[in-house]
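S.,

Sequence below, as promised.
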Amino acid sequence: MKYILAVDQSTSGTKVSLLDEKLTNVKSLKKAHRQYYPHPGWAEHDAEEIWTNTAQMLSELAEGLDPKDIAGLGIANQRETTVLWERQTGKPVCPAVVWQDVRAKELTERMPCEGGRIFGKTGLLLSPYYSAAKAAAVLEANEDLRRRAEAGELCFGTVDSYLLYRLTGGESFATDTTNACRTQLFDITRLAWSPYLAGIFGIPESMLADKVLPADSRFGEISAIDSLKGVPVTALMGDSHASFFGHGCLSPGMVKTSYGTGSSLMMNIGRTPLFSENGLSTSIGFSFAGETWYVLEGNITCSADTLMWVKDELGLISDMEELSLAGSVTSTDGVYLVPAFSGLGAPYFDENAKGMLFGMNRGTTKAHVLRAALASIAHQNTDVLDAMAKDAGQAIDELRADGGGSVNPLLMQMQSDYVPCTVAVSAEKDLTLKGVAAMAGLSAGLFDLSACSYPVSAHYRPKMPEEERLRERAGWLDAVNRCR
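The prediction came back faster than expected:
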């Protein structure tokens, strides 16, 4: 029996799994890491803590196995989160700057003339959400790190490349196209780092990964974990891309959304990039089997994070099961929650937007607010899906869904009603893990694409009358405009 190890390093924690040749989960471990918010608009992680947690869990899963029985390791990771580390030791030199962090807002506001050229090369609107601006802000604020970076002493990358570096004892400094394309330093047409972009952000090219490879490459061999020495790393993917692959979105027009801390929506647009005219990003969906597929993408900053805010900060519920109270009312009664806690992501990209709870009256209850919190997730996704339909020139007929929010029937029905379209919920609870494990197994030659399945647990179809749908959507868009 051969096995695959898979890592899903997400915003809130790290999960590792051991899967067999049929992609059946044999054993899994999960560990949260701490979240730091040192200033308004800032969000940080301790990259050393993430590495330690990952290494400990991989070591535990490997107990009793011969390394030769593990065909490969796949890593999926939170994207855009930015790590700077010492080339010599692999140790981080500052906190990791999380994708939600907008400390680089002032820096990007000084670069308006560069926005068009940046978009033309990367498919991304100039924004503090991407890794280039985050790394530039760190170097600008710390003269010592700037000096060390220019001397070639530091590496900069996303979490996948950092974990790969640590796993291989510094022997492999690489990333894949899905992560590289979200740094705003990668030319998605040439499939290469852009010296021009590195220059305008003031990032020494020596800091960038030596190689940007397809997701199904052999990225290096593990040397830092004794029980896994010699095991090859056979896949790297951004988490959203891993779930996209896990959904089997291999044909143009197929769309998925992942409901996590934020939401990530992707539409397969084929092997030629299409640059959005409606506030979306153009990204690389995945590169494998010698081909690269592109996507239109929109990212929502606050999805499940909105529900955590309702629980932890407002104290309206004590656990997520109490969200069922939202179903005790038939509508929000005109209440809208716009969770622009770090501004608004796609398709608005407005870092100045402020969160707002709007439309309350004396009869507003906790149930109305909870329903509005759930509705905000579906509305934000619909904003992105509407933009996708305009760019692609075709309606969205089916949306494939995964992630924690996809198990909430009320949210899924709202999503189906607002678009409107069929929502197909994946039966896989850990689709990011399954997607990157499938890529790792394909890369290792353990099986072929025909062995991958895409089971669905539920379908949701529109039920809301069109007049009511239009009224709900108009009310939401009015609320969004009020918070900008």
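Residues 338 and 480 are 6 Å apart (CA to CA).

Coffee later?
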